[in-house]
Fold this sequence. Notes:
Layout lengths: L1 H5 L5 H11 L7 E4 L9 H16 L3 E6 L9 H14 L6 E3 L4 H14 L2 E4 L3 H7 L17 H12 L9 E4 L14 E5 L13 E3 L1 H12 L3 E5 L6 H11 L5 E5 L11 H9 L14 H7 L3 H11 L10 H15 L1 E3 L1 E2 L2 E6 L8 E6 L9 E6 L2 E5 L19 E4 L4 E9 L5 E9 L16 E2 L1 E3 L4 E8 L25 E8 L11 E4 L3 E5 L10 E7 L3 H8 L3
Helix pairs in contact: 3-12, 5-7, 8-9, 12-13
The chain binds one RNA strand through helix 6, strand 6, helix 8, helix 13 and strand 19.
Amino acid sequence: MTDAAATPPTDFVRDRVRADQQSGKVKHVVTRFPPEPNGYLHVGHAKAICTSFGIAAEFGGKCNLRMDDTNPEAEDQEYVDAIQEDVRWLGFQWDGLYYAADYFDQLYRWAEQLVQQGDAYVDEQDAETMAKNRGTVTSSGTASPFRNRSPADNLLLLRRMKNGEFQDGTMVLRAKIDLAHNNLNLRDPVMYRIRHLPHQRAGASWCIYPMYDWAHGQSDSIEGITHSLCTLEFEHHRPLYDWFCDKLAIYKPQQIEFARLNVEYLLTSKRKLLQLVEGGHVDGWDDPRMPTLRGMRRRGFPPEALVAFCKHVGLAKFNSTHEYALLDHYVRDYLNKTSLRRMAVLDPLKLVIENWPSGQVEMCEATNNPEDASAGTRLVPFTGELWIEREDFQENPPKDFFRLSPGREVRLRSGFFVTCTGIDKAADGTITAVRCTYDPATRGGNAPDGRKVKATIHWVSTAHALDAEVHVLDHLFTVPDPQGHEGKDFLDFLSPKSRVVRRGKLEPSLKDAAAGQRFQFERLAYFVCDAKTSTKGAPVFLRTTTLKDSYQKTQKKAGG
RNA sequence: UACCCCAUAGUGUAACGGUAGCACAACAGAUUCUGAUUCUGUUUGUCAAGGUUCAAAUCCUUGUGGGGUAACCA
């Protein structure tokens, strides 16, 4: 990961930025991240953020955060705040914080300019008629009967629109371009619509609001953006972006489009995420199974891993979908180096050590993080009755199973070697306890005679175990591409196993886990102490991602 | 059906007319007090057909396949 950070990425966008800088066309690179504050940020935004902020940083430039708040119907201050919080969490700091709404005055003056130039007109057709008259992709549109009004009439009407003399939807201001253009965006696009609605930032001063196309390029221009980076679906809007700047004769930034991020199992459609929340399929926007930045944060995803992932994913114009394994790789890579190791038993089976001195408690020293010596060690209480993982014992093991089984010796991590001497069973045949003896000479985990064991398993003293809620989280969907199936809704693929809540037996030190602290429960997975539901002394742990498990993999392949 | 964009191992992504490379995944082995990590090695690729050129993943043409576009959303 460090090498990825040290090696500047290469892609067609950076190539152009570099070329512009070298040719002298651009002196100081300025980019921007322009979210609409009508929802929470998700992984897809993470790529956009890493791209615009990353490029600005690499080229010694600046990057603004701009709220693209031109539609008061959907926007809210809550999102404005959440967006800033999420961008900061990812590790980025904007140079300027701007709002499209702050440009409304300038935008309006420019609109009057276009009207006076004869480049815009007020149209009184209703929305339905206008849509019909726009034509289709294969047929050209027909002109509005209001298209050839005089600039003077249009100007008067526009002022009256602005002054609130007309009802919502009765008229719009349109650019006068070409009703026969192949690019539908240029068939006299709407610039202003009437909405008698207060704006979360501009207050009650406006009743006409600019459309995206009429606001975005000019906002970029005002801020002196040199490279306006956006996703592929805005490609068709670039000619309009350019047209407005040209007609206004103002500075024209360069818009460059790249493919949006797609990752298996993760949805990035605001509409579908909203459906998940409103349908109660998840607990909210910050549900740890959600691909929102808040959800991922709560799940324990390190922002560094997300950034490394985005960096690796790169920029291209090809519509691709990344394997979840790649994201997982960066998450594990970071967590492996940084998270404290702890022992926790999720599916407990009792282990009784028959030759253990009754009542004795040994404090065993355990390494906190083998990848980081500065993390130090801790003491874990060892007694004659322990919890071990049910799947770490098999009465009749297959040849490739080398954990505990009758007659076999294994190491209890950081503790002692134990040898299985027998098992207790309930009437129905289920194993209720495993009996064994321990070798006192193996304290600390090594045999003085040099003998080896094939396996090391984790354990927790029954007398000291912390009983805690553990959420075993998995993909929200049963298939990697829940949205591409004919005749099926993505909700049909909701996984019933995406969250399994269980009571775990955890080593006592976990009682003091801090909210948001990340751990590796050894031999199992990475977990985070849930910042939302944990209370003092009663932590709740969420599974971020599993540890790789090559044994389980071979088992599955063998049809197990 | 019109226009725009795109096409390189399983998945992504480099190579900018001159040896097709990297990451993840997969597989095999070594190491290991986590069947983790780490290390070593292996497999697999230029959508198709023509053309230009000494030389094409790269340039041109055509075809095929994929994506996008017809909100008073962004």
